[in-house]
Amino acid sequence: MKLAFLGSGPISEFHVPALREAGFEIETAFSRPGSERLRSFCQRHEIDQSDNWDEFLEIASRCSAIFVAVKTEATLEVLRKVAPLGLPIMAEKPGAADRSSLEALKELDLNQFCWAYNRRFYQSIQFIRNHKERIRSAAVSWPETAKLDHQFIINGCHIVDTLRFIHGDLQIVERISLGRDQGFVALLQNSDGVPVALNATFGAFANAEASFFLDDSRVLSLKPLEEVKEHSQMLVVEPNSKSKLRRYVPEIGVTIEETVTRLKPGFLNQSQAFMRLVQNHEYGDLSAFHDGLESLALTLELVEDR
User: Looking at domain 122-261+297-303, which CATH architecture does it have?
Assistant: First the structure.
């Protein structure tokens, strides 16, 4: 299955091995004319390089699919160029970083398109999604490292999409801004009335984590997102000569974590899902075009001044 690749940045280094493992043959790669990074990228991965847009589009027209891994700010124009080919496309998220570009994306006519939200394919996320009907509430902390709204848009969109993947569409019930480029605290809710508290305090020295509270008192805890622990009961540790405090320690019943391989977590399953889309028109757990745009719209709404 031949594929044309757009991009040569750091994330591309992870996509190429996963795509090949899934059965794709990368026919050509292109990013921009005269790019030294593209040249070294193609040499490193033994990919034929296209030197201009006309050459790339001509070769891509004979392929079965296209992968787009360019900078967010360039995604819209790139998709405008490749859309007329009518091929299945996977593109790196989020696709845009502002409202005007989001609206322009909505106007594109794309065939069998999906966004590369690889966290959907984590075993931990899949496990929690399988418990969706039992979730009573959720609490999420996403301390974006950089104090920039833009950084949350291009990176925090992952947690927004992950929450939508687990819970379905989410609406903002209440939101408190911490200031421009400082973050926010928001209460979200899905169509079943399940509340999700999201704390995104930018620049905090903390890891991302999430807890999902089930109707049978179990708690599914993510920290990091690649690992889920199921707290099934509470162990009471009585005071003793060493400690006068009574302690309540959640006992861990199940632990599921990503298998360590040479591939980035979620990338192989995502690439295999893309192969099924190309071959059988099946989306599975992939983020379809408009589904991904809904995640982007909610991400923008969370950081916008209102």
Answer: 2-Layer Sandwich (3.30)
- pLDDT 10s digits, 75-85: 999 999 999 99
For domain 2-120+264-288, the CATH superfamily is NAD(P)-binding Rossmann-like Domain (3.40.50.720)
Task: For residue 284, count CB atoms less than 10 angstroms from its CB and return exposed for 0-12, middle for 13-18, buried for 19 or more.
Answer: middle
Q: How many CB atoms lie within 10 A of CB 146?
A: 12
Note if the pTM is more than 0.85.
yes
Rounded to an integer, what distance in angstroms lies between the CA atom of residue 211 and that of residue 222?
A: 6
- Give the residue from 258, 285, 257 showing the smallest Cα distance to 271: 285
Contact 229, 255 (CB under 8 A): yes
- Burial of residue 243 (CB within 10 Å: 0-12, 13-18, 19+) is exposed
3-class secondary structure, 184: strand
